[in-house]
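Q: Give me the 3D complex with nicotinamide-adenine-dinucleotide.
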Amino acid sequence: MGMLDGHCGLVTGAASGIGRATAVRLRAEGARVALVDVDADAVRSAADEVGGTAVVADVGDSEQLAAAVSEAVSTMGGLSLLVNNAGVGAVRRLHTYSDREYDRIVDVSMRGTFNGIRAAAPVMLAAGRGAIVNVASVSGMRPTRGEAPYAAAKAAVIALTQSAALEYGPTLRVNCVSPGLIETPLTGQLLVDDSVRAGFDRRTPLGRVGTADEVASVIAFLCSDLASYVTGVNLPIDGGSLLPSAQVEGMLAAILAQTD
Ligand SMILES: NC(=O)c1ccc[n+]([C@@H]2O[C@H](COP(=O)([O-])OP(=O)(O)OC[C@H]3O[C@@H](n4cnc5c(N)ncnc54)[C@H](O)[C@@H]3O)[C@@H](O)[C@H]2O)c1
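A: Here is the predicted complex, encoded as C-alpha coordinates.
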Protein backbone atom coordinates (compact mmCIF):
# COMPACT_ATOMS: atom_id res chain seq x y z
CA MET A 1 0.00 0.00 0.00
CA GLY A 2 1.39 3.41 -0.99
CA MET A 3 0.94 6.58 1.06
CA LEU A 4 -0.79 8.28 -1.91
CA ASP A 5 -3.17 5.49 -2.96
CA GLY A 6 -6.32 6.89 -4.57
CA HIS A 7 -4.76 10.30 -5.31
CA CYS A 8 -4.43 12.01 -8.70
CA GLY A 9 -1.44 14.34 -8.96
CA LEU A 10 -0.17 16.87 -11.48
CA VAL A 11 3.52 17.82 -11.56
CA THR A 12 4.83 20.74 -13.63
CA GLY A 13 8.33 20.76 -15.07
CA ALA A 14 8.07 16.98 -14.89
CA ALA A 15 10.29 16.11 -17.85
CA SER A 16 13.55 16.58 -15.94
CA GLY A 17 15.30 16.74 -12.58
CA ILE A 18 13.21 17.28 -9.44
CA GLY A 19 9.88 17.25 -11.33
CA ARG A 20 10.60 13.95 -12.98
CA ALA A 21 11.78 12.39 -9.70
CA THR A 22 8.60 13.69 -8.03
CA ALA A 23 6.38 12.12 -10.69
CA VAL A 24 8.22 8.81 -10.20
CA ARG A 25 7.77 9.02 -6.41
CA LEU A 26 4.07 9.99 -6.49
CA ARG A 27 3.44 7.06 -8.86
CA ALA A 28 5.43 4.68 -6.65
CA GLU A 29 3.26 5.77 -3.69
CA GLY A 30 0.11 4.81 -5.57
CA ALA A 31 -1.05 8.09 -7.16
CA ARG A 32 -2.04 8.54 -10.78
CA VAL A 33 0.13 11.26 -12.28
CA ALA A 34 -0.02 13.83 -15.06
CA LEU A 35 3.36 15.19 -16.14
CA VAL A 36 3.25 18.75 -17.52
CA ASP A 37 6.19 20.32 -19.31
CA VAL A 38 6.95 22.74 -22.14
CA ASP A 39 9.42 20.22 -23.65
CA ALA A 40 7.10 17.94 -25.65
CA ASP A 41 9.50 15.09 -26.51
CA ALA A 42 11.03 14.94 -23.05
CA VAL A 43 7.69 14.95 -21.20
CA ARG A 44 6.32 12.18 -23.42
CA SER A 45 9.31 9.98 -22.76
CA ALA A 46 9.21 10.75 -19.01
CA ALA A 47 5.48 9.92 -18.88
CA ASP A 48 6.09 6.60 -20.67
CA GLU A 49 8.79 5.73 -18.18
CA VAL A 50 6.74 6.78 -15.14
CA GLY A 51 3.43 5.32 -16.32
CA GLY A 52 1.65 8.67 -16.30
CA THR A 53 -0.07 11.06 -18.69
CA ALA A 54 1.99 13.61 -20.63
CA VAL A 55 0.58 17.11 -21.12
CA VAL A 56 2.50 19.75 -23.04
CA ALA A 57 2.04 23.27 -21.66
CA ASP A 58 3.93 26.44 -20.77
CA VAL A 59 3.13 27.15 -17.11
CA GLY A 60 3.62 30.87 -17.68
CA ASP A 61 0.63 30.90 -20.03
CA SER A 62 -2.55 30.80 -17.93
CA GLU A 63 -4.73 29.43 -20.75
CA GLN A 64 -2.30 26.62 -21.54
CA LEU A 65 -1.96 25.61 -17.91
CA ALA A 66 -5.74 25.76 -17.30
CA ALA A 67 -6.23 23.52 -20.35
CA ALA A 68 -3.51 21.16 -19.03
CA VAL A 69 -5.29 20.93 -15.65
CA SER A 70 -8.63 20.18 -17.39
CA GLU A 71 -7.02 17.50 -19.55
CA ALA A 72 -5.35 15.92 -16.52
CA VAL A 73 -8.60 15.95 -14.55
CA SER A 74 -10.53 14.22 -17.32
CA THR A 75 -7.79 11.66 -18.02
CA MET A 76 -7.15 10.77 -14.36
CA GLY A 77 -10.71 11.22 -13.11
CA GLY A 78 -9.87 13.99 -10.64
CA LEU A 79 -7.11 16.06 -9.11
CA SER A 80 -6.05 15.97 -5.45
CA LEU A 81 -2.32 16.82 -5.63
CA LEU A 82 -0.54 19.65 -7.42
CA VAL A 83 3.24 20.17 -7.48
CA ASN A 84 4.22 23.53 -9.00
CA ASN A 85 7.82 22.67 -9.78
CA ALA A 86 8.73 24.25 -13.14
CA GLY A 87 11.44 26.89 -12.81
CA VAL A 88 14.30 28.44 -14.76
CA GLY A 89 17.21 30.61 -13.71
CA ALA A 90 20.13 32.67 -14.99
CA VAL A 91 23.25 34.28 -13.56
CA ARG A 92 24.15 37.91 -14.39
CA ARG A 93 24.53 41.22 -12.61
CA LEU A 94 21.18 42.73 -11.73
CA HIS A 95 21.41 45.74 -14.06
CA THR A 96 22.36 43.60 -17.08
CA TYR A 97 19.17 41.51 -17.13
CA SER A 98 17.06 42.28 -20.20
CA ASP A 99 13.27 42.65 -19.95
CA ARG A 100 12.99 39.38 -21.87
CA GLU A 101 15.17 37.40 -19.47
CA TYR A 102 13.48 38.90 -16.41
CA ASP A 103 10.07 38.00 -17.83
CA ARG A 104 11.18 34.45 -18.68
CA ILE A 105 12.36 33.76 -15.12
CA VAL A 106 9.44 35.44 -13.34
CA ASP A 107 6.86 33.98 -15.74
CA VAL A 108 7.90 30.39 -15.11
CA SER A 109 8.48 30.44 -11.33
CA MET A 110 6.12 33.08 -10.00
CA ARG A 111 3.38 33.40 -12.61
CA GLY A 112 3.54 29.63 -13.26
CA THR A 113 2.92 28.87 -9.59
CA PHE A 114 0.07 31.40 -9.45
CA ASN A 115 -1.43 29.96 -12.65
CA GLY A 116 -1.19 26.42 -11.28
CA ILE A 117 -2.94 27.25 -8.01
CA ARG A 118 -5.60 29.32 -9.79
CA ALA A 119 -6.42 26.49 -12.20
CA ALA A 120 -6.32 23.60 -9.71
CA ALA A 121 -7.81 25.07 -6.50
CA PRO A 122 -11.45 25.23 -7.74
CA VAL A 123 -11.29 21.55 -8.79
CA MET A 124 -9.83 20.51 -5.42
CA LEU A 125 -12.24 22.68 -3.42
CA ALA A 126 -15.20 21.16 -5.28
CA ALA A 127 -13.84 17.68 -4.48
CA GLY A 128 -13.40 18.64 -0.81
CA ARG A 129 -9.71 17.78 -0.49
CA GLY A 130 -6.28 18.52 -1.92
CA ALA A 131 -2.63 19.25 -1.24
CA ILE A 132 -0.44 21.67 -3.15
CA VAL A 133 3.35 21.76 -2.92
CA ASN A 134 5.27 24.60 -4.56
CA VAL A 135 8.98 24.38 -5.31
CA ALA A 136 10.72 27.56 -4.14
CA SER A 137 14.47 27.70 -3.37
CA VAL A 138 16.93 28.67 -0.67
CA SER A 139 17.65 31.57 -3.07
CA GLY A 140 14.23 32.98 -2.13
CA MET A 141 15.32 33.04 1.52
CA ARG A 142 18.99 33.95 1.22
CA PRO A 143 19.89 35.16 -2.30
CA THR A 144 23.29 34.70 -3.93
CA ARG A 145 24.86 37.43 -6.10
CA GLY A 146 23.82 37.20 -9.78
CA GLU A 147 20.35 35.70 -9.47
CA ALA A 148 18.16 38.68 -8.56
CA PRO A 149 15.05 37.88 -10.67
CA TYR A 150 15.21 34.19 -9.70
CA ALA A 151 15.61 34.99 -5.99
CA ALA A 152 12.75 37.51 -6.11
CA ALA A 153 10.50 35.06 -7.98
CA LYS A 154 11.25 32.30 -5.45
CA ALA A 155 10.55 34.65 -2.52
CA ALA A 156 7.23 35.32 -4.22
CA VAL A 157 6.56 31.57 -4.40
CA ILE A 158 7.00 31.38 -0.61
CA ALA A 159 4.54 34.28 -0.14
CA LEU A 160 2.07 32.75 -2.60
CA THR A 161 2.24 29.52 -0.60
CA GLN A 162 1.35 31.35 2.61
CA SER A 163 -1.47 33.31 0.93
CA ALA A 164 -2.97 30.16 -0.56
CA ALA A 165 -2.67 28.26 2.74
CA LEU A 166 -4.64 31.05 4.46
CA GLU A 167 -7.30 31.18 1.76
CA TYR A 168 -7.88 27.47 1.17
CA GLY A 169 -7.71 25.94 4.66
CA PRO A 170 -9.28 23.81 6.02
CA THR A 171 -10.08 22.05 2.73
CA LEU A 172 -6.65 22.31 1.08
CA ARG A 173 -3.13 22.23 2.49
CA VAL A 174 -0.55 24.37 0.69
CA ASN A 175 3.18 24.11 1.45
CA CYS A 176 6.46 24.75 -0.28
CA VAL A 177 9.94 23.29 -0.28
CA SER A 178 13.16 25.23 -0.72
CA PRO A 179 15.83 23.00 -2.22
CA GLY A 180 19.47 23.92 -1.73
CA LEU A 181 22.03 22.70 -4.26
CA ILE A 182 20.57 19.61 -5.93
CA GLU A 183 22.24 17.67 -8.75
CA THR A 184 20.01 18.09 -11.86
CA PRO A 185 20.44 19.36 -15.44
CA LEU A 186 19.79 22.89 -14.03
CA THR A 187 22.91 22.76 -11.87
CA GLY A 188 25.02 20.38 -14.00
CA GLN A 189 27.05 23.20 -15.53
CA LEU A 190 27.98 24.51 -12.08
CA LEU A 191 28.96 21.13 -10.70
CA VAL A 192 31.33 20.09 -13.51
CA ASP A 193 33.92 22.19 -11.68
CA ASP A 194 35.26 19.88 -8.94
CA SER A 195 36.51 22.79 -6.83
CA VAL A 196 33.00 24.31 -6.72
CA ARG A 197 31.59 21.00 -5.56
CA ALA A 198 34.36 20.51 -2.98
CA GLY A 199 33.83 24.02 -1.59
CA PHE A 200 30.10 23.39 -1.25
CA ASP A 201 30.68 20.02 0.43
CA ARG A 202 33.03 21.65 2.95
CA ARG A 203 30.57 24.39 3.90
CA THR A 204 27.51 22.13 4.14
CA PRO A 205 26.71 20.25 7.38
CA LEU A 206 25.60 17.12 5.49
CA GLY A 207 28.77 17.34 3.40
CA ARG A 208 27.40 16.88 -0.12
CA VAL A 209 25.10 18.07 -2.88
CA GLY A 210 21.51 16.70 -2.69
CA THR A 211 19.68 14.46 -5.14
CA ALA A 212 16.37 14.97 -6.94
CA ASP A 213 15.03 11.84 -5.18
CA GLU A 214 15.71 13.44 -1.80
CA VAL A 215 13.56 16.45 -2.77
CA ALA A 216 10.87 14.19 -4.23
CA SER A 217 10.53 12.22 -1.01
CA VAL A 218 9.87 15.39 1.03
CA ILE A 219 7.32 16.57 -1.57
CA ALA A 220 5.58 13.16 -1.35
CA PHE A 221 5.52 13.49 2.46
CA LEU A 222 3.91 16.96 2.25
CA CYS A 223 1.34 15.58 -0.22
CA SER A 224 0.46 12.71 2.11
CA ASP A 225 -1.69 12.36 5.22
CA LEU A 226 1.54 12.08 7.24
CA ALA A 227 1.55 15.89 6.91
CA SER A 228 -2.20 16.27 7.66
CA TYR A 229 -1.63 19.14 10.17
CA VAL A 230 1.00 20.96 8.11
CA THR A 231 0.10 23.96 5.97
CA GLY A 232 1.78 27.23 4.98
CA VAL A 233 5.30 26.01 5.72
CA ASN A 234 8.45 26.51 3.67
CA LEU A 235 10.69 23.51 4.25
CA PRO A 236 14.35 23.82 3.25
CA ILE A 237 15.89 20.65 1.75
CA ASP A 238 19.45 21.83 1.75
CA GLY A 239 21.66 19.54 3.81
CA GLY A 240 21.87 22.36 6.35
CA SER A 241 23.60 24.71 3.90
CA LEU A 242 21.59 27.72 5.12
CA LEU A 243 23.12 27.36 8.58
CA PRO A 244 26.72 28.55 8.17
CA SER A 245 27.06 32.28 8.60
CA ALA A 246 29.37 33.85 6.01
CA GLN A 247 30.09 36.72 8.40
CA VAL A 248 31.50 34.89 11.41
CA GLU A 249 32.08 31.30 10.30
CA GLY A 250 35.67 31.93 9.16
CA MET A 251 36.54 34.21 12.11
CA LEU A 252 35.53 31.66 14.76
CA ALA A 253 37.12 28.68 12.98
CA ALA A 254 40.65 29.58 14.14
CA ILE A 255 39.57 29.91 17.80
CA LEU A 256 37.56 26.71 17.57
CA ALA A 257 40.57 24.79 16.26
CA GLN A 258 42.48 25.67 19.46
CA THR A 259 39.78 24.04 21.61
CA ASP A 260 40.23 20.53 20.10
N1 LIG B 1 18.50 21.93 -8.88
C1 LIG B 1 18.65 22.75 -7.84
O1 LIG B 1 19.73 22.86 -7.23
C2 LIG B 1 17.48 23.60 -7.38
C3 LIG B 1 17.65 24.35 -6.20
C4 LIG B 1 16.60 25.13 -5.76
C5 LIG B 1 15.40 25.15 -6.44
N2 LIG B 1 15.26 24.41 -7.57
C6 LIG B 1 13.98 24.48 -8.27
O2 LIG B 1 13.50 23.18 -8.51
C7 LIG B 1 12.70 23.20 -9.69
C8 LIG B 1 13.16 22.11 -10.63
O3 LIG B 1 14.51 22.36 -10.96
P1 LIG B 1 15.45 21.26 -11.64
O4 LIG B 1 16.79 21.44 -11.05
O5 LIG B 1 14.79 19.94 -11.58
O6 LIG B 1 15.49 21.82 -13.14
P2 LIG B 1 15.53 21.11 -14.56
O7 LIG B 1 16.07 22.13 -15.49
O8 LIG B 1 16.19 19.77 -14.48
O9 LIG B 1 13.98 20.86 -14.88
C9 LIG B 1 13.08 21.92 -15.07
C10 LIG B 1 11.95 21.45 -15.97
O10 LIG B 1 11.02 22.54 -16.09
C11 LIG B 1 10.62 22.60 -17.45
N3 LIG B 1 10.15 23.94 -17.77
C12 LIG B 1 10.92 25.06 -17.95
N4 LIG B 1 10.13 26.08 -18.29
C13 LIG B 1 8.86 25.62 -18.33
C14 LIG B 1 7.61 26.21 -18.63
N5 LIG B 1 7.52 27.50 -18.99
N6 LIG B 1 6.50 25.43 -18.57
C15 LIG B 1 6.59 24.11 -18.24
N7 LIG B 1 7.75 23.50 -17.96
C16 LIG B 1 8.87 24.25 -18.00
C17 LIG B 1 11.86 22.22 -18.24
O11 LIG B 1 11.55 21.83 -19.58
C18 LIG B 1 12.42 21.08 -17.40
O12 LIG B 1 11.87 19.83 -17.79
C19 LIG B 1 12.79 24.62 -10.26
O13 LIG B 1 11.68 25.39 -9.83
C20 LIG B 1 14.06 25.14 -9.63
O14 LIG B 1 14.08 26.54 -9.54
C21 LIG B 1 16.27 23.63 -8.07
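A quick observation: The beta strands are 8-12, 32-37, 53-56, 81-84, 130-135, 172-179, 182-183, 210-211, 234-237.
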